[in-house]
Each structure stands twice: as structure tokens, then as C-alpha cells.
Write a structure and sequence with these properties.
Mean pLDDT: 92
Number of helices: 15
Low-confidence stretches: 78-82
Largest sheet: 8 strands, mixed
CATH superfamily of the largest domain: Gcn5-related N-acetyltransferase (GNAT)
Length: 380
């Protein structure tokens, strides 16, 4: 690569001093954001940080993750104790190495400055990923899948130019993004632009939530409620048809420790009992939603999830963010409050050439299909 080189780091304490001068555009790639992944990662995840250099000077930063899918029940089959898809994943595709952050939706894989082009950076990252593949092999872990996740379609040609050969391009569930419109000064401005049906939905949800109080929790309060928070988180996580990881119990506590005021944790209480929570991360001009949890019965009775979405909208407008990144899942209800779908793409390759030849068919078989209808709550 001539003047370009890379280094792989396995601890945030040894990252180059100038790391955050590049990471300022994305909190998830900052030293503190990455520290969360080292101090409180999912049990089946390992994280590696990559520095890209031009003539010895840092010009790019990136995240590469390893996932062991054999350590989680990836697919749920509530009717049967045996799940064929889960068995096949464990047998042939459980060890995954990819450029990106599997706990998030969107391009949180790398950041570059002007000293390196996209193509040059991607070529370096592929070299780093293949280097890590060899290192895992030495430890007796054969990598089955190589992947890059969550990019816009216009960025795909850069991967081809960088030599990502034999990869299958895929598109799964979209990233749901809510855009704060120019001129919105308060939530009343947002409500005034909703059509009658969706203003009624908002008012009904707010009435249903009577008796529920919302509170921003401090680090000590999160710590004291760790067990209950984890219980509520698992209620939601276990509903997913497809899971690649579970957060550890102390994850939100560590997130608050590292990101401080940039991380907002809101608890929803019925009396003194925590019955739900949601989280937001202030990331430049955007507010990124993170994980949430709730009591299933309270959620149904109080329309808790929908109320959380409206609370996030009100907060983002008040704090003058440009977007709320609502991420994947529950696309229809998110669209009912005004979020729109943005397609994100990835590429994937099996290290077994025969299996890789059938990657398109295999991916289609394993990809959980979600049928949903986009809503437009705004006046036309």
C-alpha cells in the first residue's frame, strides 16, 4: 500500500492520541464510545479497533467485530425445541468477522480525513480483516463469514474498486429516520402538521399513559436498577425473530459512565416500579435511539412504546436536532409518528468457496422477512 499502513488495537487505552480528532463526527467511534464495547460487550462479541495511517500519521479509524453465533439462539422457533436454521448457522456460519458495529444501525464502521480516499481506506480495512481472520485461525476459531454492514448504495462501487471480490450484496430491514422539519420550534408545531387520524392517535396514546411518570436517570440510579432494567430489556429482545447478541446486565451503567450527558436514560414508572425505559445518544446533529425495554402488560395497557416514540420526537425538536435515528425493527409504528425508511446495504462472503457460490440462495433462506406498511402521518 506504499505510504499507507494500518494498526490493530485491542484496547482503547493504547489508541493513538489523535484518535478523537477524527472520531468527533461520530460518538460511537470515539475513545469513550469504543470503551463501552470493551467494558460491557455482549458475551459472544470481541472488538478490534483499526488505525489507518498515511506516512505514519493517523488518517482513519475503524471498528471490526467478531461474533460467535453459536453462543446465542439466533433464530427463534417457539413451536419446536429444534430449529433447523439455528442448527445450520451453528454448524457452518457461526464465526463472523465484519467491519462495522452490530449493536447499531447505519454507517458506524469507519471515519476518514482528507489524507486517504475511500477506496484506499477500504483496501486497508480488508487487509486488516483478513489479518484478524488468520489470528483467529491460530486460536482455533475458523472464521466462516466476512462482512461489511450498513452502507448507502452509492458507496458500494468503492468496495468493488477496493478489491472486495466474491461478496454478495444484500439489503435487509431499513434504517428508520425521523427528520425534524425547518420551522419546528416545539412539539406543538409537529402536532399541527399531523393529519386528523394521527393527531387522534397521539392524543389517545397520551391519555392511555395516565399514571405513568417519566424520569431521567442518573448513573447511580441506573446502577441500582440494573437487574430490573435487564429484565425489561430481555422482554423486548426475546421478542425478536432473529438475534445475534444479548447485552450484559451492566451495559447501560457502563454506557452512562463513558458517555455521561451524551447518553440519556429515561425510566417510566408506575408508582415506584420501573415498567419501561428508553435510551438516546446525542451524536452531533442527530439523536440516535439505543435499546429499550418494557413490561409487556403495561405496554399493551398504556401504549408505552408509542408514547416513548412521541417523547423522543418532542425531545429532538426541543433540543434542535436534525434527525432521530430510530434504527431497525417496528418499522410500521415508527413510520406512524413520521419516520421514513432509508435502505442500507451490506456485503457478505463465506470463506468456503462452495458455500459462497450459493450465498444468494443461502442468505435469502436465512434472512427473516418482515412485512410492513409505510405510513405517512403528515398532511398532504
Amino acid at each position: 500500500m506504499g505510504k499507507y499502513s494500518y494498526s490493530i488495537y485491542n484496547s482503547t487505552s493504547v489508541l493513538p492520541d489523535e484518535w478523537d480528532s477524527i472520531a468527533h463526527e461520530n460518538i460511537f467511534l470515539s475513545r469513550n464510545g469504543l470503551a463501552v464495547l470493551k467494558k460491557a460487550p455482549p458475551a459472544n462479541m470481541e472488538c478490534h479497533f483499526v488505525g489507518l495511517f498515511s506516512n505514519g500519521k493517523l488518517c482513519g479509524i475503524a471498528l471490526i467485530q467478531y461474533l460467535d453465533l453459536a453462543r446465542v439462539a439466533t433464530f427463534k422457533n417457539r413451536e419446536r425445541s429444534f430449529c433447523l436454521k439455528d442448527y445450520l448457522i451453528r454448524k457452518f456460519s457461526s464465526h463472523v468477522l465484519f467491519i462495522g458495529n452490530n449493536t447499531l444501525t447505519g454507517q458506524n464502521a469507519y471515519l476518514l480525513n482528507k489524507e486517504i480516499s475511500e477506496t484506499e481506506a477500504l483496501a486497508l480495512l480488508q487487509m486488516a480483516m483478513l489479518n484478524l481472520k488468520k489470528e483467529y485461525s491460530k486460536k482455533g476459531k475458523r472464521i466462516h463469514l466476512l462482512a461489511v454492514k450498513d452502507f448507502n448504495e452509492k458507496e458500494m462501487p468503492d468496495f468493488e474498486a477496493a478489491g472486495y471480490n466474491g461478496y454478495y450484496k444484500f439489503c435487509t430491514q431499513p434504517n428508520m429516520i425521523f427528520t425534524i422539519r425547518p420551522g419546528w420550534q416545539s412539539v406543538e408545531d409537529y402536532l399541527s402538521e399531523l393529519n386528523t387520524k394521527y393527531r387522534t392517535q397521539h392524543n389517545r396514546a397520551r391519555k392511555k399513559a395516565a399514571g405513568i411518570t417519566k424520569k431521567k436517570l442518573s448513573l447511580s440510579e441506573i446502577s441500582a436498577l440494573n437487574a430490573r432494567i435487564h429484565e425489561l430489556y430481555l422482554t423486548v429482545a426475546d421478542k425478536a425473530a432473529f438475534n445475534t447478541f444479548y447485552l450484559p446486565q451492566h451495559h447501560f451503567e457502563i454506557m452512562k459512565q463513558e458517555l455521561k450527558d451524551k447518553f440519556r436514560f429515561y425510566g417510566y414508572f408506575e408508582g415506584e416500579k420501573l415498567v419501561g425505559f428508553n435510551t438516546l445518544i446525542k451524536n452531533g446533529h442527530d439523536a440516535d435511539t439505543y435499546f429499550l425495554g418494557y413490561d409487556e402488560e403495561i405496554q399493551k395497557e398504556k401504549m408505552l412504546y408509542l408514547n416513548m416514540l412521541y417523547d423522543m420526537v418532542a425531545y429532538a425538536i426541543k433540543k434542535e436536532f436534525k434527525h432521530i435515528i430510530f434504527a431497525r425493527s417496528a418499522m410500521e409504528i415508527k413510520s406512524s409518528v413520521g419516520a421514513t425508511a432509508e435502505e442500507v446495504f451490506g456485503i457478505i462472503k463465506h470463506t468456503n468457496p462452495l458455500l459462497n457460490f450459493f450465498m444468494q440462495k443461502l442468505f435469502t433462506y436465512f434472512d427473516p422477512k418482515v412485512e410492513w406498511k409505510a405510513r405517512n402521518p403528515f398532511k398532504t
